[in-house]
Amino acid sequence: MATGTPQLLTCRRILSLMVILNYMLHHMLIVNISIAIIQTSSNFDDTQKNNIRGVFFWGFLLTPMLGGRLAEIHGTRIVLGGAMLLASLLTLVTPLAYNFNYFCLMVVRFSLGLSLGVAFPAVATLVRRWIPVTDTSKFISHVFASDIGATITLAGSGFLINAWGWSSVFYVTGATVVLWCVCWFYLVYDSPEKHPRISQLEREALAEAIPHVERPNPTKTPWLKMFKSRPVWAIIVANACAMLNTNTTLNYLPLYMRQVLHYEIRENGLLSSLPFLGPYIMALATSYLADRWTKSATFTTPTIRKIFTGLFFLGSVVLLAVLCFWGYVRFVSVSVFILWQTIFGSAAAGFISNTVDISPVYSGTILGSAATVGGFTGYLSSLLVTAFVRGEGDVFEQWRGVFGVLIGTNLFGWGFYFWGMSGQVQEWNGESGMEMEAVNRVEVD
């Protein structure tokens, strides 16, 4: 801390660690079925498999806005912790549902989508109470720890399946989340004022760095003004376009590895995990640059957000074009998928952090709204792949159609965000720009 806290492990650092683990586990519960369902292919045809993947996103579509709003009113601790606990229990009963019947498995996956939809945006509301504005991008970058969770799950699932059967994937991931929930409720509180074990030094340093920390949770939301706001829609559209990319990769990369590159199950799981190693590293690097540029006033906030959002969208266009021509070559495909997912990490310092720029108070609701639309694109990814990829004939040519649609999506997402974004706190936020400037300049570790 700039004001001096001798503790090595402060409450804010513990909070950051728990948030990192949360996002890792959040994605573990999403992707665990991507490998397991391939191994258990005898019970369901391809259409049913796509429905099992896709129904999760219908559930996820319905609750992120609710999750963000509930966290703003009741606090992140209870909302996020409760949602993740429910998700862990649903994961543990997934093998039972599978053995019962197809409809029961669909209900469990839909319910899992509902619970994880609540969990995803809830973290954003912690920012205004725990994180100085100059560290916002760095904290928001932890959302990309989810990709580490995807990496671990995709890499480890093949080994778990070969050793103990496909159901072990769900038992291991579900039990891990239960353990996280116990730690979450013990270690994390909604504000420094509510934390029973925070030191006086850390409490005072945070109060100096974040003067608005004492303000009560908002009870009314300016819905009409919010959804008439062009900067809000810029974030929602950018997130939707980005999520169509990442959901297609997240859910169908193992299928591409099997159909086009002809990898076996153990190789498939390991290689499918590789693209998810890079985004968190990229998110940390770009967020460090963004916060550094903010503190030094090297660039304005809008310029910073445009730079890193453009890095993802325009970089994706180039890489997808490479896949269209040489995606049948193993080395080229694996390398491009790794780079493609890696540059997605730059969105942390781009449109994702932009939610807190325009509205620190309602950032949870905005992120929830963006995640709602993003959840719908998760289902769109299943429709997209189903529409183009038939699994017979020239399969690579079919996948080129998928890549072409994604190229157009990225160009549109970049153009819309560039046109509509803002770096200023919006009037309907309820806090003036002067008040936000007072928050900015104390650095806290």
TrEMBL record:
GO terms for biological process: monoatomic anion transport. It is a multi-pass membrane protein. The keyword Protease does not apply. It comes from the Eukaryota. Residues 12-425 form the Major facilitator superfamily (MFS) profile domain. GO terms for molecular function: symporter activity. The keyword Disulfide bond does not apply. GO terms for cellular component: membrane. Keywords: Membrane, Symport, Transmembrane, Transmembrane helix, Transport. Its main location: membrane. Gene3D superfamilies: MFS general substrate transporter like domains (1.20.1250.20). The chain crosses the membrane at residues 20-40, 52-71, 78-100, 106-127, 139-163, 169-189, 232-250, 270-290, 311-328, 334-353, 365-389, 401-419. Pfam families: MFS_1. It is found in: Membrane. Signal peptide: none annotated. InterPro entries: MFS, MFS_dom, MFS_Na/Anion_cotransporter, MFS_trans_sf. PANTHER family: GH05102P, SOLUTE CARRIER FAMILY 17. This is Major facilitator superfamily (MFS) profile domain-containing protein.
